[in-house]
Specification:
It is a single chain. The chain is α+β, with helices and mostly antiparallel strands. It folds into two domains: 252 residues, no CATH class; 134 residues, Immunoglobulin-like, CATH 2.60.40. The chain has 14 helices and nine strands. A five-stranded mixed sheet has the order 2-9-8-4-5. A four-stranded antiparallel sheet has the order 1-3-7-6, with no helix packed on it. A hairpin with a 5-residue loop joins β6 and β7. α3 packs antiparallel against α6 and α6 packs antiparallel against α7. The N and C termini lie far apart (83 Å).
Length: 439
């Protein structure tokens, strides 16, 4: 029956469903809010972990998921609040009927004003119904908008990485295709956004619409707008829907600005400052990281107070470290970079595995050449090995003998070599203060 949408029986079914849709709306909103609050914290945790370990793919996916969850939580909570008010208004109407302004016995000025501004109680119930239905529908439409923006940025990034910066395409092809495509994508994104915020202004002008149509057609596939386009135009052909759409965009921007505010209680002291000889940040001490949800810093040691005869130094791995290694030893850079999203289906090859083991030794040798460790001004021989820390994060670990280190405060310094304009310099990776006391 759904295929024959002009069938009167099908239209009657739709009419009945939309009259009873509020029950489904509340049911879906309740389950969705519960599920969203459950997954929001793990998604946020995953996003920060990806950012901390510089996993760009995981970070983008987690960020989009977090934004989508935040939008749905806010909209669905607002929907439940308004729908509850609507149900309360229906119950009150059953008891009290419409507003009797004469019974209120106000002065003529107030009675005239209230009749004009407040009006009928039935109109108020109808307005609440419209708000509830539109907010519920637009909640899921906004997720598609977030995905549309994400896919557009992904297309620009793919063009930059795999065409413009391609190593296997000839320069004249990569530049000849990549540059025009990049210009088209950037200008097309701006034009499409202008058309979106102006509620279709570019489609209304005859000569502009002819120029805009190819851009619109291509971006409908990039943004997947063909999946939700009927929902958009059903909003825009209704005055109430257009008005609410115009209100929601600045409203979300205002919420974003308001949530960015925080209270600053000092001009000089900040918990987010990196460790130094006068600052001990919790992210650098494993015993403190185990008791809270802080993220691992670039370098960690076992504790702020060291009573062991050794100091365990762990350096978190990131893709940036591998780029540094390739910069110092180009022979380690493979012809095909295996980093990024990969399938878990692999076929073991004994020969390739043994070759990887030998290259892995060269890789670790480069790590130990590039990175150096000092306690105060004394340099230590570091022998970093590949391992995982107590959070199962991948990194490099070494142990320093503290027999020759006096008791009291000391400063661990982890440096790396950096090539800048042909010169090799030392770059500070992290500085961590600690106190050493012998048992």
């Amino acid at each position: 029956m759904s295929k024959d949408y002009n069938n009167p029986a099908f239209k009657n079914l739709l009419q009945k469903l939309q009259e009873e849709s509020w029950q489904l709306e509340l049911l879906i909103s309740g389950f969705a809010i519960f599920g969203l609050f459950t997954v929001y914290e793990p998604i946020t945790q995953s996003m920060h972990e990806a950012q901390n370990s510089q996993q760009i793919y995981k970070f983008v996916i987690s960020l989009v998921a977090q934004i989508s969850c935040a939008i749905l939580i806010f909209n669905l909570l607002l929907h439940v609040l308004l729908r509850g008010l609507w149900i309360g208004a229906l119950g009150l109407r059953y008891v009290s009927g419409d507003i009797d302004y004469e019974e209120l016995n106000y002065s003529q000025k107030f009675t005239k004003y209230l009749k004009k501004r407040v009006g009928s109680f039935d109109r108020y119930i109808g307005t609440l119904e419209n708000y509830c239905s539109i907010i519920f529908a637009i909640s899921f439409l906004l997720i598609f908008y977030v995905l549309a923006l994400t896919f557009t940025i992904v297309f620009i990034a793919l063009n930059a990485n795999y065409i413009l910066d391609s190593e296997w395409l000839p320069g004249w092809i990569s530049k000849g295709i990549g540059i025009p495509l990049m210009v088209f994508l950037c200008i097309g994104m701006i034009i499409t956004f202008i058309d979106f915020v102006t509620l279709g202004f570019l489609k209304k002008k005859k000569w502009i619409s002819k120029i805009y149509f190819p851009v619109y057609w291509l971006f409908s596939f990039i943004t997947l707008s063909f999946l939700y386009r009927p929902l958009v135009y059903n909003f825009l052909d209704h005055k109430f829907g257009r008005r609410l759409s115009l209100i929601l965009v600045p409203f979300y921007l205002l919420i974003l600005v308001l949530t960015s505010f925080h209270y600053q209680n000092s001009n000089y002291i900040n918990a987010k400052v990196n460790s130094s000889d006068i600052i001990a940040n919790v992210e650098n001490y494993e015993d403190q990281l185990a008791n809270n949800k802080k993220f691992t810093g670039d370098v960690t040691i076992q504790s702020k107070t060291i009573t062991d005869p050794y100091l365990r130094v762990f350096m978190l791995f990131s893709e940036n470290i591998e780029d540094i290694v390739f910069n110092f030893d180009p022979t380690l850079k493979p012809e095909e970079d295996l980093r990024g999203l990969r399938t878990g289906i692999e076929f073991n090859d004994t020969f390739n595995q043994s070759m990887h083991d030998s290259l892995r030794r060269v890789y670790l040798k480069s790590i130990n050449t590039i990175y150096s460790v000092k306690i105060d001004s004394t340099r230590f021989s570091s022998e970093f090995v590949l391992t995982q820390n107590f959070k199962n994060e991948l990194g490099f670990e070494t142990y320093l003998n503290l027999d020759s280190i006096s008791e009291g405060k000391h400063l661990l310094k982890v440096n790396r070599m950096r090539i800048r304009k042909g010169d090799t310099t030392q770059w500070v990776v992290d500085r961590i203060p600690f106190w050493h006391f012998k048992d």
